Amino acid sequence: MFDRYEAGETAVLVHIDFTDEGSREDLAELQLLVESAGARSVGVITGSRRAPDRKFFVGTGKAEELAAMVAATDANVVIFNHALSPAQERNLEHLCRCRVLDRTTLILDIFAQRARTHEGKLQVELAQLRHMSTRLVRGWTHLERQKGGIGLRGPGETQLETDRRLLRGRIKNINRRLEKVDKQREQSRRARQRSDMAAVSLVGYTNAGKSTLFNTLTSAEVYAADQLFATLDPTLRKLELPDGAAILADTVGFIRHLPHDLVAAFKATLQETREADLLLHVIDCADEKMRDNIEQVQAVLKEIDADEIPQLIVCNKIDLVEGIKPAIDRDDTGKPFRVWLSAQQNQGLDLLRQAVQELVGNVIAELTLKIPATAGHYLGQFYRLDAIQQKEYDDLGNCILSVRLPDADWRRLAKQSQGELETFIVDTATDRVVC
Questions:
Q1: What are phi and psi of 185, to 5 degrees?
Q2: Residue 246 annotated as binding site
Q3: Which of these, 426, 423, 428, 424, lies nearest to 405 by C-alpha position?
Q4: Does 368 belong to an annotated binding site?
Q5: 251 among the known binding-site residues?
Q6: Under DSSP, is residue 150 helix (H, G, I), strand (E, B) or coil?
Q7: Closest Cα partner for 299 from 254, 269, 337, 264?
Q8: For the chain, domain boundaries
């Protein structure tokens, strides 16, 4: 479809330090991404700038230095640790005579390699098509004019316009298929909700050890490796607790500046995180950039509207840090907020189960609601849960209802009502207390 230079396994990396903290990336992380993509770095170009150059991103002098390194190392791909515009990619490819990728394209390529399920492949393709739609002109520079001549006169479209139309059609087709997948996932979620089992989701920075922890807790066989984005397709298993069970979901790892196209394409997958009753935020406590990674995960959770869900911090890989033993940290009320463990060495897993049990197994919500007559259908839901403690009516016909039920059930009802039930709260006696 496109006239591109053949990509190989040798790459020259480009990393620029900007004065703006929000635009900075991590060179070590880029090298891990390149390794995860199956490429080999043969050179690194670094520099500092206040702002990207409009033509080459790195400036004319640095661009010429890059072209010389590509020629000297016989590299066949250049990978930038930043987001490039289509024009910058085109200019750099013309100068370096090899394919030029930015950070977003690299991450999309890794996701394409990792996708295993039908849904995952559709999501990756959708993200790639959205990203590619702004870069089509690079592949059709020889067909920018309308066809002409005997037998070549077309309907008035240039080849580029025809391709864009086909691309839009493919995107619509994938969206329709993903909507069906989303409905299937929604049915599965409703079935799990009816089983009264709490939903717990693993989240965290990529390569923090989520899949290893998932396998150890549930005896699953999810692919786990010391590489970025080893997990792509979500997996759900039953998590045995000291007094009951929960549904545990292993999800894709987050990364700083996660491409927006990926967030949009993986809406159905990320829904497992948004619908969870508790998030296990897994952290690699041996990573020097631990605090920065935590901030990046919180930023992604906010972007997908999951930042309000209760979290339990799971500090993993304590076997790599001297002087740390398995433990549960509690707040002033005795509520667990952090667990120290090693999934690889099977240390502290019982403590994690205990903490999860306390947070989702025995947490009770006690509330007083003023439900108007037009919303009387909610009464039946509370009756089915045997949650009504007291009921009376005011002069306007509103039902003043005192309820006591597991916090997971309350959160589920609130979600199903799309937040309407929460607007009826007039008093919270003991908001969320542990029995």
A1: -65, -40
A2: no
A3: 428
A4: no
A5: yes
A6: coil
A7: 254
A8: 10-101, 116-145+156-183, 196-360, 364-424
